[in-house]
Amino acid sequence: MSTVRVMTEADVTAVSEIRVAGWKAAYAGILPQSYLDRMTVEADARRRRRYITGPDKVTTDLVAVDTRGGVVGWACLGPSSTAAGELYALYVRPSLIGTGIGHSLLQAVHGMAPAQGFDSLLLWVLADNARARRFYERAGYATDGAVQADDYDGVSVAEVRYRLTL
Fold first, then answer.
1. How does pLDDT run across 41-94, given as a tens digit for each residue?
2. pLDDT digits over 140-164, tens only?
3. Which residues contact residue 111 at a Cβ distance below 8 angstroms, ignoring those fewer than 6 apart?
4. May I ask the CATH architecture of the domain 3-118?
5. Given strand 3-6, what is the order of strands in its sheet?
6. How many CA atoms lie within 13 A of 58 on its CB side?
7. H or E segment and range at residue 84
8. For residue 120, how many other CB atoms are within 10 A of its CB?
9. Could you give the CA distance from residue 36 to residue 112 in angstroms, rounded to a whole number?
10. Neighbour count for residue 18 (Cβ, 10 Å)
11. 49-56 long-range CB contacts below 8 Å, 24 or more apart?
């Protein structure tokens, strides 16, 4: 069982641990291993601290915590380049995937998006990340035809955009 609350600066290291472990687990075989191998919790935490404490912060970061108060998941919501909101990230400790933590985070994001002026949400998923695509599709998201590619160590990796009307 987990509860969801707003992330604090004290959560940064735990969130970075989840994000780095999540990338290494979810994207193995999709992104170049050289890119994944260079990811570190320390570098991610430095970036995350700048985001969470920066004067231009426009995102809302949420964490899922277990009964002992340990951070077990993270989600980030903010504005997209369109009038919709965007779910920038949702990660759960890899060993806890499938336990409902991701669903709890997603429901919290859906609950707070309208108060931030968003009547729909967008998110991007790596085209080859079948597990994440199934998760979002079960939650009611559908692809909207938009695609993009990002470069990871010289390899172009396709992403597809999903949309949900709240």
1. 999 999 999 888 777 788 999 999 999 999 999 999 999 988 899 999 999 999
2. 999 999 999 999 999 999 999 999 9
3. none
4. 3-Layer(aba) Sandwich (3.40)
5. 3-6, 60-65, 71-79, 85-92, 120-126, 155-165, 142-152
6. 10
7. none
8. 16
9. 32
10. 25
11. 49/9, 49/12, 52/7, 52/9, 52/12, 53/9
pTM equals: 0.94
Secondary element (H or E) of residue 145: strand 142-152
Is residue 11 left, alpha or beta, with left meaning phi > 0 and alpha meaning psi from -120 to 50? alpha
Residue with tokens 């991007």: 124
Is 94 within 8 Å of 25 (Cβ atoms)?
yes
Residue type, 71: V
Residue bearing tokens 């426009």: 58
Q: How many CA atoms within 13 Å lie on the side-chain side of 5?
A: 14
Token pair of 161, please?
């955009």
